[in-house]
Amino acid sequence: MANARVHRAFIDYAKRGLDHNVAVGRYVLMPDHIHFFVAGDHEFDLGMWVRGLKRVVGAAVTGGRREKDSAAVTAAATTFSPVGRSQSFWQRGFFDHLIRNSESYAQKWDYVRENPIRASLVSATDDWPFQGEIVEIDHA
């Protein structure tokens, strides 16, 4: 998933969220997973938002454009093995963590931004091109 097409799809999806009071802050795209900080208003449904993200990113990974129907969600979440059998692209569900204070936010961000170093993809965090910040999330 760490490529320019997926990065662009992630950024576009995150920016569209602003129209719905959803703010994506800092993020890091890794070859096999994504870390991001997100905040929404009291009506924000993280599960629904992540399903949409998986659809959009899945389409960018597979190179296809998917419509908003259940067959498309399945297709975007599935990739094909070389022998033609389908296998799940996304794990079921997702892992989330509620950040309660600025110290926790800083600790989580340090962990997230060092992922490319731990994976031996770069030697310095600033060298990883698939990271950024869409909007600053108030974490005080």
List the helices and strands and how they pair.
Elements: H1 4-17, E1 22-29, E2 34-40, H2 46-62, H3 70-76, E3 78-80, E4 86-88, H4 102-113, H5 115-118, E5 131-133
Antiparallel strand pairs: 1-2, 1-5, 3-4
Instruction: Assess the beta-strand content as a share of residues.
Output: 15-25%
Total strands: 5
User: What's the story with the biggest beta sheet?
Assistant: 3 strands, antiparallel
The rounded distance between the terminal residues' Cα atoms is 31 Å
Supply the number of helical segments.
5
Task: Indicate the mean pLDDT.
Answer: 79
What structural category characterises the helix and strand content? Answer: alpha+beta
Task: Provide a compact summary of the structure.
This protein is α+β, with helices and mostly antiparallel strands and 140 residues long. Helices cover 39% and strands 17% of the residues.
Features:
three-stranded antiparallel beta sheet; two-stranded antiparallel ribbon; alpha+beta; 140 residues
How would you explain this protein's 3D organization?
The termini are far apart. The chain has helices at about 5-15, 45-60, 70-75, 100-115, 115-120, and strands at about 20-30, 35-40, 80, 85-90, 130-135. It is globular and about 40 Å long. It has a three-stranded antiparallel β-sheet with strand order 2-1-5, sandwiched between helices. A hairpin with a 5-residue loop joins β3 and β4 (about 85-90). Helix content is about 40%, strand content about 15%. α1 (about 5-15) runs antiparallel to α2 and α2 (about 45-60) crosses α3 (about 70-75). With about 140 residues, the chain is α+β, with helices and mostly antiparallel strands. The chain has five helices and five strands; from the N terminus they run αββααββααβ.
